[in-house]
What we know:
12 strands, single chain, CATH 2.40.240.20, 2 domains, alpha/beta, seven-stranded parallel sheet, elongated, five-stranded mixed sheet, Alpha/beta knot
Amino acid sequence: MPRYEFRMQRLFLDAAISRDTPIALDRAQANYLLNVLRLKSDDEVLVFNGRDGEWRARIAVEGRKAASLVPVGETRAQAPLPDLLYLFAPLKHARLDYMIQKAVEMGAGRLAPVLTQHTQTNRLNLERARANAVEACEQCGVLSVPEIGDPVPLEAVLAGWEENEPGRRLIFCDEGEAGQNPLDPLQALERGPLAVLIGPEGGFSEEERARLRALPFVTPVPLGPRVLRADTAAVAALAVVQAVLGDWR
Length: 249
């Protein structure tokens, strides 16, 4: 039996979810269900809010542009956020959208944008980033919507690491390691709380690489002989972590 019901539309809601308690949809959600998907009264969708699990909910049409949902049964209990922190340098819009979606799909529980010396943009549209995270959750059966923080300078993150993230090892994906160090990333990973750091398109500066490599809680690893774009590197690094220490095993 499949773990998720992929044939039913999934919808994220901000409201609390409980059996037989109607939930009014906003105009955009109602339009999507009624006019885009052409669903009708008594059709069912799956709903979740990141707190109350996943539920089957019946549509109650209240006009051409208005509808509510009535939860009728829980399909999955709420799962905790994965204990995997993903740090990344913000990219320009299209690639950033892709990166956030893939990080969520790959099991990141928290997303932390960091500002490096070669970061392409110092701004992050948190509303857009959260919308991309929610969309990935809707499409891929994820119940827990990852937290997304405000951008913070990398140096500040590293300075406060041992206080804010006690016992958590930082996996630093160092493009400078490729072809120079025989370290196998599969063997370098250690059990325990982990974070993965991916740099900007221009890579980390030599100062940043030296700083990272000098810290006791950092493990530098290569991602192979090829030069990867930052969004591709995110998928590659998270795949390695999940395959070796995560829930793929």
